[in-house]
Specification:
Layout lengths: L5 E4 L9 H8 L5 H9 L3 E3 L2 E2 L12 E4 L24 E4 L3 E6 L13 H11 L14 E2 L8 E7 L2 H10 L6 E10 L7 E10 L4 E5 L8 E13 L2 E8 L6 H8 L23 E8 L13 E3 L7
Protein backbone atom coordinates (compact mmCIF):
# COMPACT_ATOMS: atom_id res chain seq x y z
CA UNK A 1 0.00 0.00 0.00
CA UNK A 2 1.28 3.45 -0.92
CA UNK A 3 2.20 5.48 2.20
CA UNK A 4 0.18 8.39 0.80
CA UNK A 5 -3.08 6.38 0.91
CA UNK A 6 -5.34 5.86 3.90
CA UNK A 7 -7.53 2.76 3.67
CA UNK A 8 -10.77 2.38 5.64
CA UNK A 9 -13.30 -0.45 5.57
CA UNK A 10 -16.92 0.27 6.45
CA UNK A 11 -18.29 -1.95 9.23
CA UNK A 12 -21.91 -2.79 10.02
CA UNK A 13 -22.34 0.09 12.46
CA UNK A 14 -21.08 2.65 9.93
CA UNK A 15 -23.17 1.45 6.99
CA UNK A 16 -26.10 3.47 5.58
CA UNK A 17 -24.68 6.88 6.42
CA UNK A 18 -23.28 9.38 3.95
CA UNK A 19 -19.60 9.19 3.11
CA UNK A 20 -19.26 12.82 4.18
CA UNK A 21 -20.54 12.16 7.69
CA UNK A 22 -18.39 9.06 7.95
CA UNK A 23 -15.23 10.99 7.02
CA UNK A 24 -16.13 13.82 9.41
CA UNK A 25 -16.40 11.26 12.21
CA UNK A 26 -13.18 9.46 11.32
CA UNK A 27 -11.14 12.68 11.02
CA UNK A 28 -12.57 14.84 13.81
CA UNK A 29 -9.44 16.99 14.09
CA UNK A 30 -9.54 17.86 10.37
CA UNK A 31 -11.34 21.04 9.29
CA UNK A 32 -14.33 20.78 6.95
CA UNK A 33 -12.58 22.95 4.38
CA UNK A 34 -9.88 20.27 4.03
CA UNK A 35 -12.48 17.52 3.69
CA UNK A 36 -14.39 19.49 1.04
CA UNK A 37 -11.14 19.88 -0.88
CA UNK A 38 -10.54 16.11 -0.84
CA UNK A 39 -13.86 15.60 -2.63
CA UNK A 40 -13.26 18.42 -5.12
CA UNK A 41 -9.79 17.13 -6.01
CA UNK A 42 -10.99 13.54 -6.48
CA UNK A 43 -8.85 12.28 -3.60
CA UNK A 44 -11.51 9.86 -2.31
CA UNK A 45 -12.38 6.48 -3.82
CA UNK A 46 -14.94 3.88 -2.80
CA UNK A 47 -14.30 0.39 -4.13
CA UNK A 48 -11.68 1.89 -6.47
CA UNK A 49 -14.11 4.43 -7.98
CA UNK A 50 -13.75 8.18 -7.44
CA UNK A 51 -16.59 9.61 -5.35
CA UNK A 52 -17.37 13.33 -5.54
CA UNK A 53 -20.94 13.06 -4.27
CA UNK A 54 -20.76 13.78 -0.54
CA UNK A 55 -24.20 12.23 -0.03
CA UNK A 56 -23.11 8.80 -1.29
CA UNK A 57 -24.60 6.16 1.05
CA UNK A 58 -22.04 3.71 2.38
CA UNK A 59 -22.60 -0.03 2.50
CA UNK A 60 -21.05 -2.60 4.79
CA UNK A 61 -17.59 -3.73 3.58
CA UNK A 62 -17.15 -0.74 1.26
CA UNK A 63 -13.44 0.05 0.96
CA UNK A 64 -12.58 3.75 1.12
CA UNK A 65 -9.22 5.03 -0.13
CA UNK A 66 -8.15 8.58 0.77
CA UNK A 67 -5.10 9.97 -1.00
CA UNK A 68 -3.72 12.20 1.73
CA UNK A 69 -1.13 10.97 4.22
CA UNK A 70 -1.49 14.07 6.45
CA UNK A 71 -4.90 13.09 7.83
CA UNK A 72 -5.08 11.47 11.26
CA UNK A 73 -7.79 8.90 11.97
CA UNK A 74 -9.59 9.53 15.27
CA UNK A 75 -9.12 6.76 17.80
CA UNK A 76 -12.63 5.88 18.94
CA UNK A 77 -11.35 4.43 22.19
CA UNK A 78 -9.42 7.54 23.21
CA UNK A 79 -10.54 9.86 25.98
CA UNK A 80 -13.42 12.13 25.06
CA UNK A 81 -12.56 15.80 24.53
CA UNK A 82 -14.64 16.94 27.51
CA UNK A 83 -12.52 14.71 29.78
CA UNK A 84 -9.27 16.34 28.70
CA UNK A 85 -7.78 19.48 30.29
CA UNK A 86 -8.56 22.57 28.23
CA UNK A 87 -6.69 25.84 27.92
CA UNK A 88 -8.74 28.94 28.55
CA UNK A 89 -10.40 30.10 25.35
CA UNK A 90 -10.45 33.84 24.63
CA UNK A 91 -13.89 34.49 23.14
CA UNK A 92 -14.35 37.78 21.30
CA UNK A 93 -17.90 37.18 20.06
CA UNK A 94 -20.47 34.40 20.08
CA UNK A 95 -24.04 33.84 18.91
CA UNK A 96 -26.07 30.93 17.55
CA UNK A 97 -24.23 30.96 14.20
CA UNK A 98 -20.61 31.93 14.76
CA UNK A 99 -17.87 31.95 17.36
CA UNK A 100 -14.93 34.35 17.04
CA UNK A 101 -11.92 33.59 19.20
CA UNK A 102 -8.53 35.18 19.82
CA UNK A 103 -5.93 32.51 19.02
CA UNK A 104 -2.82 32.85 21.17
CA UNK A 105 0.72 32.85 19.83
CA UNK A 106 2.25 29.37 19.68
CA UNK A 107 -1.03 27.47 19.29
CA UNK A 108 -1.61 25.40 16.15
CA UNK A 109 -4.98 25.37 14.41
CA UNK A 110 -5.28 21.60 14.58
CA UNK A 111 -2.92 18.91 15.82
CA UNK A 112 -3.36 17.24 19.20
CA UNK A 113 -7.09 17.33 19.91
CA UNK A 114 -7.09 19.33 23.16
CA UNK A 115 -3.96 21.43 22.63
CA UNK A 116 -4.91 22.85 19.22
CA UNK A 117 -7.27 25.79 18.73
CA UNK A 118 -9.84 23.44 17.17
CA UNK A 119 -9.58 21.26 20.28
CA UNK A 120 -9.97 24.23 22.61
CA UNK A 121 -13.09 25.37 20.74
CA UNK A 122 -14.54 21.87 20.66
CA UNK A 123 -13.93 21.46 24.39
CA UNK A 124 -15.65 24.76 25.11
CA UNK A 125 -18.71 23.89 23.03
CA UNK A 126 -18.97 20.41 24.55
CA UNK A 127 -18.65 21.76 28.08
CA UNK A 128 -21.34 24.38 27.42
CA UNK A 129 -23.64 21.69 25.95
CA UNK A 130 -23.60 23.28 22.49
CA UNK A 131 -21.92 20.39 20.68
CA UNK A 132 -22.45 16.63 20.93
CA UNK A 133 -19.42 14.98 19.36
CA UNK A 134 -20.67 11.43 19.89
CA UNK A 135 -23.74 11.82 17.67
CA UNK A 136 -23.18 10.05 14.35
CA UNK A 137 -24.76 12.85 12.32
CA UNK A 138 -23.45 15.68 14.48
CA UNK A 139 -22.19 18.77 12.65
CA UNK A 140 -18.42 19.02 12.94
CA UNK A 141 -17.42 22.45 14.25
CA UNK A 142 -15.02 24.01 11.77
CA UNK A 143 -12.78 27.05 11.49
CA UNK A 144 -13.33 29.16 8.38
CA UNK A 145 -9.71 30.20 7.90
CA UNK A 146 -6.30 29.55 9.41
CA UNK A 147 -3.54 31.45 11.17
CA UNK A 148 0.11 30.44 11.45
CA UNK A 149 1.15 28.86 14.72
CA UNK A 150 3.29 31.90 15.58
CA UNK A 151 0.57 34.47 14.75
CA UNK A 152 -2.03 35.64 17.23
CA UNK A 153 -5.49 36.84 16.35
CA UNK A 154 -9.10 36.44 15.33
CA UNK A 155 -10.41 33.15 13.94
CA UNK A 156 -14.03 32.54 12.92
CA UNK A 157 -15.82 29.24 13.62
CA UNK A 158 -19.15 28.24 12.09
CA UNK A 159 -21.59 26.60 14.50
CA UNK A 160 -24.00 25.14 11.93
CA UNK A 161 -23.95 23.85 8.36
CA UNK A 162 -25.83 26.69 6.68
CA UNK A 163 -23.47 29.27 8.22
CA UNK A 164 -20.44 27.23 7.23
CA UNK A 165 -21.56 27.06 3.60
CA UNK A 166 -22.24 30.80 3.36
CA UNK A 167 -19.00 31.89 5.01
CA UNK A 168 -16.81 29.34 3.19
CA UNK A 169 -18.13 30.73 -0.09
CA UNK A 170 -17.23 34.28 0.98
CA UNK A 171 -14.23 34.01 3.31
CA UNK A 172 -11.80 35.18 0.62
CA UNK A 173 -14.12 37.87 -0.74
CA UNK A 174 -12.75 41.14 0.61
CA UNK A 175 -16.12 42.82 0.01
CA UNK A 176 -17.72 40.43 2.49
CA UNK A 177 -15.06 39.58 5.09
CA UNK A 178 -12.56 42.38 5.58
CA UNK A 179 -9.45 41.37 7.58
CA UNK A 180 -6.92 43.80 9.01
CA UNK A 181 -3.60 42.73 10.53
CA UNK A 182 -1.15 44.56 12.77
CA UNK A 183 2.54 43.95 12.23
CA UNK A 184 5.52 45.28 14.14
CA UNK A 185 8.43 45.31 11.70
CA UNK A 186 12.12 46.07 11.96
CA UNK A 187 13.35 49.55 11.06
CA UNK A 188 11.56 52.84 10.43
CA UNK A 189 9.09 52.50 7.58
CA UNK A 190 6.82 55.44 6.75
CA UNK A 191 4.05 54.53 4.26
CA UNK A 192 0.50 55.71 3.69
CA UNK A 193 -1.83 53.09 2.21
CA UNK A 194 0.94 51.66 0.05
CA UNK A 195 -0.24 48.71 -2.08
CA UNK A 196 2.50 46.17 -2.77
CA UNK A 197 1.71 43.80 -5.64
CA UNK A 198 3.72 40.85 -6.85
CA UNK A 199 3.97 37.08 -6.68
CA UNK A 200 4.61 34.46 -4.04
CA UNK A 201 6.56 31.32 -4.88
CA UNK A 202 7.36 28.51 -2.46
CA UNK A 203 11.05 27.81 -1.88
CA UNK A 204 10.99 24.07 -1.20
CA UNK A 205 14.53 24.01 0.18
CA UNK A 206 13.93 26.80 2.69
CA UNK A 207 10.31 25.76 3.34
CA UNK A 208 9.02 29.31 2.99
CA UNK A 209 7.34 31.66 0.56
CA UNK A 210 9.37 34.16 -1.46
CA UNK A 211 7.90 37.46 -2.70
CA UNK A 212 9.00 38.79 -6.10
CA UNK A 213 7.64 41.70 -8.14
CA UNK A 214 7.55 39.52 -11.26
CA UNK A 215 6.21 36.08 -12.14
CA UNK A 216 8.77 33.34 -11.39
CA UNK A 217 7.11 30.17 -12.69
CA UNK A 218 3.71 28.57 -13.16
CA UNK A 219 3.45 27.83 -9.42
CA UNK A 220 3.72 31.52 -8.50
CA UNK A 221 0.58 33.12 -7.06
CA UNK A 222 -0.34 36.78 -7.51
CA UNK A 223 -0.65 38.70 -4.25
CA UNK A 224 -1.37 42.23 -3.07
CA UNK A 225 -1.16 43.81 0.38
CA UNK A 226 -1.92 47.35 1.57
CA UNK A 227 0.30 48.82 4.30
CA UNK A 228 -0.09 51.94 6.42
CA UNK A 229 2.20 53.20 9.18
CA UNK A 230 0.56 53.57 12.58
CA UNK A 231 3.46 54.33 14.89
CA UNK A 232 7.26 54.36 14.83
CA UNK A 233 8.91 53.34 18.10
CA UNK A 234 12.71 53.50 18.26
CA UNK A 235 13.91 51.29 15.40
CA UNK A 236 10.61 49.49 14.85
CA UNK A 237 7.38 50.35 13.04
CA UNK A 238 3.79 49.32 13.68
CA UNK A 239 1.88 48.83 10.42
CA UNK A 240 -1.67 47.93 9.48
CA UNK A 241 -1.67 45.30 6.76
CA UNK A 242 -4.81 44.69 4.74
CA UNK A 243 -4.94 41.55 2.61
CA UNK A 244 -6.16 42.24 -0.91
CA UNK A 245 -5.45 38.58 -1.69
CA UNK A 246 -5.22 35.70 0.73
CA UNK A 247 -1.95 33.79 0.27
CA UNK A 248 0.09 31.73 2.71
CA UNK A 249 2.67 33.86 4.58
CA UNK A 250 1.74 36.82 2.35
CA UNK A 251 2.46 39.57 4.89
CA UNK A 252 5.59 37.89 6.24
CA UNK A 253 7.16 37.33 2.81
CA UNK A 254 6.23 40.79 1.50
CA UNK A 255 7.74 42.63 4.47
CA UNK A 256 10.86 40.48 4.20
CA UNK A 257 11.21 41.55 0.55
CA UNK A 258 10.79 45.19 1.61
CA UNK A 259 13.70 44.71 4.09
CA UNK A 260 11.40 45.31 7.06
CA UNK A 261 10.74 41.79 8.37
CA UNK A 262 8.28 41.28 11.20
CA UNK A 263 9.97 41.47 14.60
CA UNK A 264 11.09 38.02 15.81
CA UNK A 265 10.25 36.41 12.44
CA UNK A 266 13.60 34.69 12.03
CA UNK A 267 12.35 32.52 9.16
CA UNK A 268 11.86 35.65 7.07
CA UNK A 269 15.08 37.44 7.99
CA UNK A 270 14.41 39.12 11.33
CA UNK A 271 16.67 39.06 14.37
CA UNK A 272 15.43 36.84 17.19
CA UNK A 273 14.61 38.98 20.21
CA UNK A 274 12.59 36.50 22.30
CA UNK A 275 12.50 32.74 22.67
CA UNK A 276 8.69 32.73 22.71
CA UNK A 277 6.64 30.95 20.07
CA UNK A 278 5.54 34.21 18.52
CA UNK A 279 6.11 36.77 15.85
CA UNK A 280 4.75 40.32 16.11
CA UNK A 281 1.88 39.70 13.69
CA UNK A 282 -1.75 39.90 14.77
CA UNK A 283 -5.00 39.18 12.94
CA UNK A 284 -6.37 42.29 14.59
CA UNK A 285 -9.78 43.13 13.13
CA UNK A 286 -12.69 41.56 11.24
CA UNK A 287 -15.55 43.42 9.58
CA UNK A 288 -18.48 41.79 7.78
CA UNK A 289 -20.37 43.43 4.90
CA UNK A 290 -22.84 42.51 2.15
CA UNK A 291 -24.02 39.33 3.84
CA UNK A 292 -27.60 38.34 3.05
CA UNK A 293 -30.12 35.92 4.51
CA UNK A 294 -29.71 34.66 8.06
CA UNK A 295 -26.29 36.32 8.48
CA UNK A 296 -27.28 39.84 7.37
CA UNK A 297 -27.33 40.98 11.02
CA UNK A 298 -23.50 40.70 11.06
CA UNK A 299 -23.05 43.43 8.44
CA UNK A 300 -20.98 46.40 9.64
CA UNK A 301 -20.12 44.70 12.92
CA UNK A 302 -16.48 45.25 13.88
CA UNK A 303 -14.56 42.65 15.90
CA UNK A 304 -11.13 43.35 17.38
CA UNK A 305 -8.53 41.78 19.62
CA UNK A 306 -9.60 43.11 23.04
CA UNK A 307 -6.32 44.42 24.42
CA UNK A 308 -4.02 47.24 23.33
CA UNK A 309 -0.97 45.59 21.74
CA UNK A 310 0.76 48.61 20.21
CA UNK A 311 3.69 49.41 22.47
Amino acid sequence: MNDNIIKLTVNKNDAHQTIFNFIKKMFKTTSLSVIYKLFRNKKIKVNNKVVKDRSYSLQENDVILIFDKALVVTNRNSAQPSQLPARELAIVYEDDNILIVDKPHGVEMHSNLHESLDGMVRNYLINTNQYHHDHEQSFVISHLHRLDKFTRGLVIYAKNKITLDVLLANINNKNVVHKTYLAKCEGNYQVDNLVVEGYLTKNENLKKMVFTPHLVNNTSKACATQFKTLKIIANTTWLTATLLTGRKHQIRATLSYLHHPIVNDVKYGAKKITSDYMIYLYAYQLVFANLTGHLAYLNEKVFKIPENIIK
